Amino acid sequence: MDAKQGTRLRPGILLDRDGTIIVDHGYVGSVDRVEFIDGAPDAIAAFNKAGIPVAVVTNQSGVARGLYGIDDVDRVHQHIEAQLATYGAHIDLFLYCPYHPAGIVAAFARGSEDRKPRPGMANAAACALNLDLSASWVVGDRPEDIGLAKAVGASAVYLGADNYQCKGVWSFPGLAAAAPFIVKQVTQ
Predict the structure, then answer these.
(1) Residue 153 banded pLDDT, cuts 50, 70, 90
(2) Helix H or strand E encompassing 59
(3) With CB atoms counted within 10 Å of each terminal CB, which end of the chain scores lower, N or C?
(4) Measured between alpha carbons, how far apart are the two ends of the chain, in Å?
(5) Is 71 a known active-site residue?
């Protein structure tokens, strides 16, 4: 139980965005570049149907690099949410980190506890969605996602064609393949 809120903590799923839900075209900062990975919307719908909260946690250094702005990130997330609705799916919370130490936009050119693999976004998701991070899953296609899982004590799923060889990390080719496994682990 969370003493502060007096409610029972629950497991959740923290999804990376680019390369996990949508195709990573490199710095996706406009809706015309949003392309769902096959099966990803249905996987998110399966999480929703199972009653598992879903948060997106994504590094968006394109803001710090001056490639697009905060409003663009928000528009992309609104577009993703609208498109997911056509599949009967939704994201409970979108979180992103616009900071990067090598950025050229002064307001965002710095390090941040929110930048994966640091735990800031996961901790914010836990607070907002009442999650038990030690019972939750971080799913992504990059070492930073696996690092985030380790930083917060969550289980890790690596997505990609190559089999990620690391103790305690489950590897799948994509979110569609991982979803039944994750749902089973969370709901059993």
Answers:
(1) very high
(2) strand 54-59
(3) C
(4) 20
(5) no
Residue 5 has a pLDDT of 53
Contact assessment for residue 143 and residue 150, using Cβ atoms and an 8 Å cutoff: no
What are the domain boundaries of the chain?
13-187
- Mean pLDDT, the chain, whole residue set: 95
Of the residues 2, 16, 132, 145, only one is catalytic, namely 16
Indicate which residue of 2, 18, 32, 92 is catalytic.
18
Cα 188 to Cα 183: distance, rounded to the nearest angstrom: 8
Whether residue 18 lies in the annotated active site = yes
Domain 13-187 has what CATH class? Answer: alpha beta
Q: How deeply is 100 buried, as exposed, middle or buried, from its count of CB atoms within 10 A (0-12, 13-18, 19+)?
A: buried
pLDDT(177) > 70? yes
Of the pLDDT bands very low, low, confident and very high (cuts 50, 70, 90), residue 6 is low
Contact 152, 133 (CB under 8 A): yes
Q: Identify the bridge partners of residue 138 per DSSP, sorted by sequence position.
A: 14, 156
